[in-house]
Amino acid sequence: MAPPCAHCHSARAVIIRPKNRHRLCRECFIRVFETEVHETITATQLFQRGERIAIGASGGKDSTVLAAVLKTLNERYDYGLSLCLLSIDEGIRGYRDDSLETVKRNAQQYAMPLEIVGYGELYGWTMDQVVAQVGKKGNCTYCGVFRRQALDRGAARLGISHVVTGHNADDVAETVMMNLLRGDLPRLSRGTSIVTDSAASEVKRSKPLKYAYEKEIVLYAHHRRLDYFSTECIYSPEAFRGSARSLIKDLEKIRPSSILDIVRSGEDLAGLVPAEVKGTGPVGGGGGGGGCGSQNGRTSGGEMAEMERRLAGDEAAAGQETEIRLPVRTPGRKNKQAKDQPKVKTQTMGKCERCGYISSQKVCKACSLLEGLNKNRPRMAIDVDMEDEESSTTLMRQMERVELG
Amino acid sequence: MPQKELVDPCSDCREFESILTQRNRRLCQDCYRRAVSLKVLRRTENYRLRKHPFPRTGPLNLAFPLSYGLSSTVLLHMLHDQLDAQLAKPRGPPGYTLHVLIIEPSTICPSSPSHEEGFEAAQKCFPHFSFTRVSFHDIFEFVPDILETMSQFAGSFFVDNPSLSNQERLAAFRASISTATSRADVDYILMNRLVVAFAKKMDCRAVLWGDSDSKLAAKTLANVAKGRGSSVTWQVSDGMSPFGLEFSFPLRDLFTTELQNYATFFPELSKIIIRDEPPSENTLTKNLSIDELMMRYVQTQGEKYPGVMLNVTRTAAKLDPSQAPTTAQCSFCGSAVSESDGESGFCYGCIRSRPESR
User: Fold this and answer.
1) Tell me, what's a Pfam family for it (chain B) (predicted)?
2) Is residue B175 located within the same domain as residue B209?
C-alpha cells in the first residue's frame, strides 16, 4: 500500500519529488511547487504591482508551466500583474509551426493576449533558410543571436519592458558547468542571477523557475494536464552544453540536490569573478549563452575540438615567446598610470549603425551575421546600377560567363 | 669528424634521436624530462629562490603530503632533483626544508595493504627530505577539537564511545555518513585538516600538493557540483588558504601523460608508486561518488580534449577570492559560511554531506 502524503498526511502519496524524494499527493505537490515559485518571486522582489509582463512562450513544457503558474499566483496572491504571451517564430518547419499552434491554444486557455515575432519578417531569413545556407553546424549561433533581439523587439512592440523566460534549475546548472568548461568568466558572472538586465538591452529578463527542477516541471505539467508541445529542436546542439547536460543528468542520479548545489556554487562563483572581467565578452549571454537549451545531451563535438585546437595553439605560441625588455625609464607619472590600469577592455554601449539596436560594436551581432548570410544570397531582381556594383559582382561575373559561353 | 645522421633529431638539443612528443615537439628523453620539470621549477621558484614574502635567510619549512600516487611521487622526484642541483652550488640560496607527510593508505581504506616497501624506498630516493608517517585516525591527536566537530556534524547518527580505540572511533564516524559522495567529501576534509595540522606543527609556511591536472580539473568540477563553489579558489589555485598557510599546486600545467612518461625514466619510482586501479565498468553511475564521476568525466573527455580540461583549472585560478565578503569559517572544512546557511556553523557544502540530508 502506498504511504500517505508527507504534507497533508491524508491523501495517498502518488509522487516522489525529484528534488528531495519527499512523497506527496497530487494536490500537495502542485501546491508546494507553486509556493516555491512564489517564494522565489517574493524573496527576489521580482515583480512590481501593475507591471506588464511578457512571458516568452515557446509552447514547450517550461514556458507553458511558467504561464500556468504565473497566472495562478497572480490570482492567488494578487500580484496585480498584466500578463501576455510573446512567441518567436524561428521558422523551423515541423518544429516551430506545430509548437506555435500550442501557444495559440494556451493563449485561449489562459485568456492572455499573444504576440508572435518571426525571424522571416524581422531578418528576411527563417532558420530553415539559414540552415540551408550555413549547414547544421553552428546554426545555433544565428538562432541565439536572432532570438535575443527578436524577444526585445517583440517586447518593444507590446510596450513591455520585462520578459520572463522558462529557464529552469537544470538549465542554469548546465550554464554554470558549460561556462566553466568554456572558461567563460563574464558569462559565469551573470548566468546565474535571476534577473539579467544589462546595458545591452532595454528589456529586463528574469527566470522565475530558476530553482525549479526540470523533472518537477514535467510532473507539474502532467498533473495539471497542461497542453504543451514536447518535440525538441531538430537542429544540432552545442557541444559544450551537450557535454554539460549529460554530466548534470549523471550528477542528479548520484545526489538529487546537486542541481541546486550547482546553482548555489554558480552564484558564489559569480561573486568571485574579478570586476574588470565582468563587463567584457560577447554581449547577450543572459541566460542561454550559446544555444537554446532544448537539446538533449547529443553532442556534435565541433566546438570542443575547436577550442582544444585553439588552446594547443596558444600553448605552442607561449613556448616560442621571447620576452623583449625595453630599457627601463625613470618611472614618470604617465608611465605608472598606464601600468596600474587593468588591461581588459570594457564595453561601451552604442547603437548599431544599421538597425539601431543596442550594441557594443558599430554593427550589432545580428546585422553582421545577416551580412554574411546576405552576401551569398542571389538577388531577386536584376538591377545592376553603378552604386550597386560592388555587391553584385557575383551576378556580373555570371552574366559575363553567359556571354562568353 | 662528420656528424652522425639522425633520422628524427630532438628539436631542443639536436644531438639525440627523439623518442617522445611533448606538445607537438619531438624530444629526446633528457630534453623531455627538462621540459616537463621546467614548468614545476617555475611554479616553485618563490620557495627555492626565497622570493617575496619568504625570508631570504633562515629556515623555510614546507609540507608535502605524499599519497604514493603517480603525481605526488613524480612531483617529489622533480623537487628533489631541483633542490639537489641547488644545494650543490656553494653560494646558492638556502632553498627550503620539505616535510613529507604520509597518511598510511591502509588506515584510510582497510582493503589497501600496508606500503612498507614504498616508505623505505621514498626515504632512500629522497635523502634531502624528512619523512613522517601517520595513521588516518591520528587526526584525533593532531586536531584535538575534531571530535566535537564530528559529533555536531553527524548529530544523532554518531555517538562517540571514548572506551574505543581512535581507529574504531574514526571508523564509527565514517560509518555514520550514508552516501558515497558524502563519504568521499568528508574523508577529503578530514585528510585536509590532518595535513594542515601537521604543517602547522612543523612550522611550515606552505603546503605543496601533488594534484595532477586531471585531478585539479575534476576537483574544480566536483566542488562546484557539491555546492562548494566558494571554496574552489583555495582548493585548486595557488595562494592563501583559509588556514593561514599557502597552498600550492606545482603540477597544474602538466598533463597526466607527461607525468606517466616522466615516471618511466626512473625505474626506482615504481617501488614507491601505487598504481591507480582502472575504473570498474560495472559500477552503476548512481553508486559512484561525485568525485569519482568527475574524475571519470575528466579522464574520458581529457583523452580527446586535454587542453579544455586543463583550462577548467586555469579558469578557476582567475577567480579572485578577495572579492568574497568576509564571513565566518565553517567549523568542519574551513570554507566561508554565509548567513543563509543557518546557525549550524557549517557551510552549504558541509550541510549537504551531513548524515540527515540526502
Assistant:
1) CTU2
2) yes
Cis ω before B279 (30° cut-off from 0) = no
Q: What confidence score (pLDDT) does residue B341 get?
A: 79
- pLDDT grade for A133, boundaries at 50, 70 and 90: confident
Q: Which is it for the CA torsion A85, A90, A95, A97, positive or negative?
A: positive
**In this complex, do B230 and A247 lie within 8 Å of one another by their Cβ atoms?**
no
Total structural domains within chain A: 1
* Cβ within 8 Å, pair B286-A253: yes
Residue A118 lies in a domain: yes
Q: Do A251 and B225 touch (CB under 8 A)?
A: yes
Query: A336 in helix, strand or coil?
Result: helix
Q: How far is A94 from chain B (nearest CA, A)?
A: 34
Q: Between A and B, how many residue pairs show a Cβ–Cβ distance under 8 A?
A: 139
Q: Which amino acid is at A130?
A: V
**A182 pLDDT exceeds 50?**
yes
- A116, amino acid identity: I
Residue from the list A269, A307, A312 with its beta carbon closest to the beta carbon of B232:
A269
Which residue ranges in chain B fall short of pLDDT 70?
1-4, 357-358
d(CA B312, CA A181): 6
B246 within 8 A of B64, measured Cβ to Cβ: no
Which residue range is the domain that position B15 belongs to? 1-43
Please report whether residue A168 resides in a domain.
Answer: yes
- Looking from the CA of B195 toward its CB, the CA atoms found within 13 Å total 28
HSE-up of residue B23 (Cα within 13 Å, Cβ side): 23
| Domain CATH number, residue B85 | 3.40.50.620
CB-CB neighbours of B339 under 10 Å: 9
Q: B105 and B239: one domain?
A: yes
Of A22 and A287, the structure prediction assigns the larger pLDDT to A22
pLDDT grade for A186, boundaries at 50, 70 and 90 = confident
pLDDT at A160: 93
Reading the block at residue A68, the C-alpha cell is 500556468
End-to-end, the C-alpha distance of chain A in Å comes to 85
Q: How far apart are CA B72 and CA A168, in angstroms?
A: 41
B297 close to B220: Cβ distance less than 8 angstroms: no
pLDDT of the residue at A70:
97
Flag whether pLDDT at A379 surpasses 80.
Answer: no
Residue B109 sits in the same domain as residue B154: yes
Chain B partners of A244 at a C-beta cutoff of 8 Å? none
Radius of gyration of chain B (CA): 22
| A58 labeled part of a ligand binding site | yes
| Higher-scoring residue by pLDDT: B320, A350 | B320
What's residue A320's pLDDT?
A: 67
Residue with C-alpha cell 613556448? Answer: A319
Residue B339, domain member (yes or no):
no
* Cross-chain CB nearest to A272 (options B289, B311, B323): B323
| Helix, strand, coil % in chain B, rounded to nearest 5 | 50, 10, 40
Residue A401 has a pLDDT of: 52
CA of B13, closest CA in chain A: separation in Å?
A: 15
Interface residues from chain A to B (CB-CB < 8 Å): 20-21, 176-177, 180-181, 183, 185, 188, 243, 247, 250-251, 253-258, 260-262, 264-269, 271-275, 277, 301, 304-305, 307-308, 311-312, 315-316, 319
What pLDDT is stored for residue A291 in this prediction? 44
Q: Is A289 annotated as a binding residue?
A: no
- Is residue B120 located within the same domain as residue B28? no
Would you tell me how many other CB atoms lie within 10 Å of the CB of residue A107? 19
